[in-house]
Amino acid sequence: MAGKRKKSSKLIRRQQRAGYLFVLPWVIGFIIFFLQPFLESMWYTLNDVTMGTGGMETKFVGLYNFRYLIVEDSKFLMNLWTVTADMLTQVAVCTILSLFIAVVLVQNFRGRTVYRAIFFLPIIMTSGVVYSMVGSVVGSLGLSGTGNAYMNGSSIADLMSRGGVSQEVITLIMGVVDSIYAMITNCGVPILLYISGLQKIPESAYEAARIEGAGSWDIFWKITVPKISPIIFLNIVYSIVDSCTAYGRSADGNVMMKAIQDMGFGQTMKFGMSSAMAWLYFIVIAFFLLLAWLLLGRKANKIEN
Rounded to two decimals, what is the model's pTM? Predict the structure, then answer.
């Protein structure tokens, strides 16, 4: 038993070293390229920053920028709530949808490699120039927006309204319909991670469960979900970061990212206020990441070890 524990601890230490080595390039890049702007942005939050003839000019104002955003700015908290709601929706839908698709794609059937490639295709389609081209085509064809979903000359929203459906339900349904393209786009990486986790579950575990008389539903909840809980946690973290850091220049993009960019690099060019917005937004993201760790991360870490 002692020898087995010793081998297990060696394996864990070897995996930890591999993990540190994997993130080392990011750490080096952060120190070289991002550490100085990171610290400067912290200092800017406490100052009124203007662009002068000699560069950035700062005037210390203490916590005024934070107080203004939280107490006086009517749009900041509303934008923050909108982004948070969108993030929670994306995390829930993407986590469940990706797991469902991965469970289907991991089954043994003809042509599954082609279907896996199809579901991973959005990752390629949303990269760089390809994403810009697709976005311009989709926008020009009017494939998004509740007013463009037509059926027999009337929009779906109008049909539901005539059928007596409340406006709140219509808004919720149409919001989901409008976000289908974005949701499918965001599910490519989670599906790939889920497939890799599902393939590592030994078939003997499923065979033993079937011999004991367990059904497919019991096997899914008592074997599949616990075994891939580290992947579930990883995908939740990925979805949180992906949603909160989405590019926000378009009208239907991330409103907080757009507000931060407009405040700092728009007509006002209030770098101090923009830095304060960014740091408050960062604190909110860190809170949800910490919450995910407390609810799932620790348990998933124990299962993985």
Answer: 0.77
